[in-house]
User: Fold this.
Amino acid sequence: MSIPHSQVPLLDWTLADSDKPAFIAQLRGILINGGFLYLQNTPVPPALIDQMVDATAKFFALPAEAKDAADMNDTAHFNGYLRRGPVENPTREQFNYGDDHADAAEGAPVYHNIHGRTPWPDDALFPGCRAIMGEYYKHLKALSIKFTCFVAEALGLAADAFEPLFESDVARRQLRCKLLRYPACAPSTTGFVAHTDSNFLTYLLQASDEPGLEMQNASGEWSAAPTIRGTFIILVGRVLEKITHRLVKAPMHRVVSPTKGTRYSVGYFQGVAMDTRVAEASAKYKYPQEVLDMQRAREEREGDNTEFRLVESDNLPAGEAVLNFKLKAHPLVAYKFYPALFPKFYPDGLPAKYASMVH
Ligand SMILES: O=C(O)CCC(=O)C(=O)O
Ligand SMILES: [Fe+2]
Assistant:
């Protein structure tokens, strides 16, 4: 079942200019009661969104060798291309990119290696690809910085209340774009398993009309989240859930592969500073009673009496938690670039199916 159009949580960015209190009140209700929304009429130019949609399909249409030349498994930084194949990614292709960074300094914590350069396919094969994707990234960065202020205000805090969570140098922030291509699978299969996002906030562009994304509601029911051209779907991530002591909840979502046609999406993932410890940061935030009352009302309505709890990894610097998560997801990168950590995650060595991929 699809979310009925009248029930799609749609928020108009321009309302922030014309009637800020109404905008903040709507955002507050949506965040506390749902944890995801469609944001429309943002400052991201519609022509740029169209270019990004085209560029995403065109990127994946490049010859396999060109994409493989930008293999994520050949770098330590988790950016680059992951082919679709029986070993790693049976239902989708993926390309991650972000700001380019110099390699981590000598003696820096190992998790600083999540920063690095993105490998790209030869630009001559798709002139303009990097320029369009770079421009998109720049606009999403500006959007995410502004939207984070709105989220803080919606939760009854000062607009800059979340600023200390992020690197003060905007160029060093934990931001990543992820392009995904889900080819048709018949019979229908899971394209992306049910999960909550682990970061702070996600800004998702559904870059095709093929259905596939599904959101789970409080009763456990799944509904298709339709593509609405020109909007971004904003998803609360687990870090924001923890920083707000579950005043907002990270929504469970999944992707069902299309049975015909191809589905494309572009996620923009906003994470907190590498050195931020979520447990410690979370303790510093206090929310006003009127928003806490809305949380109580939601919990009563949903019959949710689970107590808010942090986990062991919330005591780690966020970059270390991210690295651990990524090393579990990418055994080849762990094997090739993190030999000191590899045995901790793979005590029995590289899983057999990956052996043929070592070159
Ligand atoms: O492809 C999509 O629309 C969703 C992808 C997603 O949930 C993710 O990358 O975390
Ligand atoms: Fe997700």
